[in-house]
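Internal ticket #5521
Category: modeling
Description: The requester needs a full-assembly model to guide mutagenesis choices. All entity lines are attached below as received. Residue total reported by intake: 706.
Assigned to: D.W.
Attached entities:
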Amino acid sequence: MVTIGDVAAHAGVGAATVSRVLNDSPKVSEPTRQRVLAAIEVLDYRPSPLARGLSLGRGHGFGVIVPFFTHASAVERLRGVVDVLADSPYDLVLFDIESPERRDQVFAEMLRRDRADGLLVMSLPPAPGALDRLAARGVPVVVVDVGGTNVSAVTSDDFGGGRMATRHLVELGHERIGFLGDAPDNPFGFTSSARREAGYVEELASARIRFDAALVRHGPHDREIARCLATELLALDEPPTAIFASSDVQALGVMEAARDASLAVPDQLSVIGYDDVELSAYAGLTTVRQPLFESGRLGARMLLEALAGRAPAEPESHQLPIELVLRSTTGPPAATPKPKPTRQTRPTRRTNP
Amino acid sequence: MVTIGDVAAHAGVGAATVSRVLNDSPKVSEPTRQRVLAAIEVLDYRPSPLARGLSLGRGHGFGVIVPFFTHASAVERLRGVVDVLADSPYDLVLFDIESPERRDQVFAEMLRRDRADGLLVMSLPPAPGALDRLAARGVPVVVVDVGGTNVSAVTSDDFGGGRMATRHLVELGHERIGFLGDAPDNPFGFTSSARREAGYVEELASARIRFDAALVRHGPHDREIARCLATELLALDEPPTAIFASSDVQALGVMEAARDASLAVPDQLSVIGYDDVELSAYAGLTTVRQPLFESGRLGARMLLEALAGRAPAEPESHQLPIELVLRSTTGPPAATPKPKPTRQTRPTRRTNP
DNA sequence: TTGAAAGCGTTACCAC
DNA sequence: GTGGTAACGCTTTCAA
């Protein structure tokens, strides 16, 4: 392996000068510079990032912790991160979390050895105290889609989004509106679904629609599970005429349940999702759009700033706008009570109980 | 920052002993060991991976180069990699490639400084010579879904998969079978689509069906573009009764085109895809399944072996099995020629020209 | 079983 | 402008 010393020897200069050329310091004469460059070329020399890092006291790893990076929303966010990082000297070091155990393991390792210079934590509330300990180490942290912490954060208005989705349904004339989302006490501690649900509850209240706990279903973030849950909802004596799913994947599950129950969407059942992942356009899903890609970009930029030593004195929090995307899965409820369908599993469906 | 020296001082031992404890060397007496462990605990010490790497002559980065990691197939593969890496001391360093320029930039940087200890290259034929130069550097490389190179590789039988898809259509009775895939001369040098296309051509030949170049369309790997291309195909004087799309995303585009043209799938048009990404089950798409997740796992395991110095003498190549997944988008062609539809853009559709 | 000391490849400070 | 040289924090001989 060829080192800076070899280059120095070959060019007939000192190692320090080679280093200066490498870091294009202004204090190198042009002839020397050329000589060094030539030597680098001839020897096919490349500096060791490890040695460089050790000397500089910092590495080049940009850590991103993300749960279920297979989910379309996580991928979208990551893409924003990638986009920003492409022009930086940092490498994206990805930590995917698929179980609470793994979450704790990663955070523990993160503390034990600094595997990254900075940390972007997405959608996953860190283990208690982890942030403080990281801060004590001087590791900059930015969180995205995580609420209630004391670090720089990028969020979007989940509560408002929940209201927005619900209001849309209310304005269409729905009165029995179901909600389907993550359990508030899920093992990962995800909170965005709960905030959307709070918005749903609030909007119902302000529309003077009685909240019916029977219309609310919780389960892990998964299409299949959402399908089951929605099937339960649709089998109710007084089934909802509209369902607000806390994410697009779950909304897709609801659509499947509707399909299974031979319910036309949106004529017999309105469905609204959340996120606006790419697939939703394909499925024609009405949804609340949150800027996933942009959240990744912004979070990454903020962390990059902190990494460059330009961290804000106080942690700063940015809230990204949300927006209703109207497509073809929501509409007014059926005007009149319909006769009992032929299928036996479906009870009489009434629009206004 | 607390160093190994601090721990040594605190425990009243030498730095070497602390190092031994850290790397659980057997030659440390239990009492000493406990004392060191206690000191580590008290001081909340964590070793610097940088220094460790420098001393050891190797880092802890597991580089993965993947084009368009937003694509479901890439994500699936990555998930396999993540799965394997979770139990290893390596961190996943992700390089996403979304343009040919970026491809060259990444490979160039990869050569200039070793950003990772080993490299897993997925779906993307490396720049010419890049592999050799990497090998010269002693950087182990494994490629996945890339053909025709001289490194350890994980592939699947694209040619056979192309035949398989086509044969399925032929056996259903189709004679006008369209193909839609990546251009053979695409700027990234992707080759799997071309191999599937070759399988399609071959199978057509062995079924004694005349190959019609008009039924073949190429374009970048994108659903929208596939939709346009499929629309062209369907607007032909003698449109295909079935379309084999080289990937599921493209097949979805074909389905959209069919929907736009008010063509029932599979009654008026059969569609078969390739990959079997998660979404395909939702869409009910008949497809050729290739083990994406498993390809990631295997590739990662092979690279891990190489990283551990257990590289095979000769580069070894593994071919993963493919399998036909029958769902609801393929069926026999319409038995009789149909009358001209009411829509004006659609020409007379004939089943058997 | 333990410790002292010599690297590992850079960078940066300090003379010249 | 340039060249020594001391860090940077760890691992690993080599002695004891």
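Resolution: model delivered.
Comment from assignee: Residues 1, 3-5, 15-16, 19-20, 22-23, 47-48, 50-56 of chain A lie near DNA strand C (CB under 10 Å from a C1').
Ticket closed.
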